[in-house]
Amino acid sequence: MAVKGLGQLDQEYDGSNLKIGIIHARWNRVIIDALVEGAIKRMKFLGVKEENIIIESVPGSYELPWGTKRFVDRQKKEGKPLDAVIPIGVLIKGSTMHFEYISDSTTHALMNLQEKVDLPVIFGLLTCLTEEQAFARAGIDEAKSMHNHGEDWGAAAVEMATKFGPQCPF
């Protein structure tokens, strides 16, 4: 049994003044597309304007930390700074240690990236043991009674940007 969602929110957050980036890997594209769509759907529900959701891609999950840093820097240099960014990737265990190395290094790099870019970096990396788990977490396999984690990431981006992002009052 899986515990779903972000839990009880202390309030609904207004994303109407936010600019949020999504940068996604292209590996496991069907799953990635569902997660990206879930994040966009939730952010739009919370008021983020479609034109303020900027999307970029990188080849794979390992490239997410560097790509995210450059994406944030580019947006700032162009005078269109982001309030939060959601790197989205999917790693599925295979028969070698590759999964463990990529999962661990990408997770730590994304965590450490927040201090470097001084923005909320939402952890949008699925690390699944099977393709079926990834489909369930992307809301594709409804028989497994899971929801789309991308929706959670979109909501987390709006909350974190509102509370702690560059536009916050402190």
UniProtKB/TrEMBL annotation:
UniProtKB keywords: Riboflavin biosynthesis, Transferase
Catalysed transformations (reactions): (2S)-2-hydroxy-3-oxobutyl phosphate + 5-amino-6-(D-ribitylamino)uracil = 6,7-dimethyl-8-(1-D-ribityl)lumazine + phosphate + 2 H2O + H(+)
Name of this protein: 6,7-dimethyl-8-ribityllumazine synthase
Swiss-Prot/TrEMBL GO biological process terms: riboflavin biosynthetic process
InterPro entries hit by this protein: LS, LS/RS, LS/RS_sf
Top-level enzyme category: transferase
Family, as annotated: Belongs to the DMRL synthase family.
Assigned EC number: 2.5.1.78
HAMAP family: Lumazine_synth
Keyword Transferase (UniProt): yes
Pathway noted in the entry: Cofactor biosynthesis; riboflavin biosynthesis; riboflavin from 2-hydroxy-3-oxobutyl phosphate and 5-amino-6-(D-ribitylamino)uracil: step 1/2
